[in-house]
Amino acid sequence: MGFMLSKSMNENMKNQQEFMLMNARLQLERQLLLQNEMRERQMAMQIAWSREFLKYFGTFFGISAISLTARAIKQKKPAFFIPIVPLSFVLAYQYDLGYGTLLQRMKGEAEDILETEKNKLELPKGVITFESLEKARREQSKFFLGK
C-alpha cells in the first residue's frame, strides 16, 4: 500500500516538474517576443523620426541653398557656397538613415563587432552577479539606516 502511494506521489511530482518546466519555457518565450516587439517598435520610431526630421531639414536646406546661391551670384562672393557643404552632409546622412541602407550597414558592423571584437563589449568590473547586487543593497541599507 505504501509503495503504491509513494509511486503515485513520485509520478505526480514528475508531472508537476514537467508542467513547471513547460510553464517557465512558455514564459521565457513570451518575454523574448515582448522584448523583440519593443525593440522593433523603437527602431520604427527612430526611422519615423528621421524621416520626419528629413522633411523639415530638407526644406531648410533647399531654402538655404537657393538663398546662398543667389547671394553668391549677386555679390560675386563664392564664400557664400561654404555653408552648403556641411549642410549637404547632414542632409545625406538623414536621407540615408530614413530611406537608405544606413541601418543595414550599422547592423552588419554591429554583427562584426559581436563576432570579432567581443572584448570591447565587456562591462567594467565584469558581469553583474546576484552576490554583487546583494552586497550593494546591503551597503545601501546600512547607509540609509545609519548603521
Present the secondary structure layout.
Layout: H1 2-75, H2 84-99, H3 102-116, H4 130-145
List the domain count as a whole number: 1
Largest sheet, strands/sense/barrel? none
Secondary structure class reads mainly alpha
Average pLDDT taken over every residue: 91
pLDDT < 50 runs, ≥5 residues:
none
Shape: elongated
What is the tally of beta strands?
Answer: 0
Order of helices and strands: HHHH
Q: Which range best describes the helical content: under 10%, 10-25%, 25-40%, 40-55%, 55-70% or over 70%?
A: over 70%
Instruction: Give the count of helical stretches.
Output: 4
Distance between the termini: 58 Å
The radius of gyration computed from the alpha-carbon positions, rounded to a whole number of angstroms, is 30 Å
Strand percentage? under 5%
Describe the protein.
- The structure is a single chain.
- With 147 residues, the protein is an all-alpha fold.
- The protein has one domain (2-145).
- Helix content is 82%, strand content 0%.
- It has four helices and no strands.
- The chain is elongated and about 105 Å long.
- The two termini are 58 Å apart.
- The mean pLDDT is 91.
Quickly describe the structure.
By secondary structure, this protein is mainly α. It has four helices and no strands. It has one domain.
Notable features of this structure?
147 residues; mainly alpha; 4 helices; 82% helix; elongated
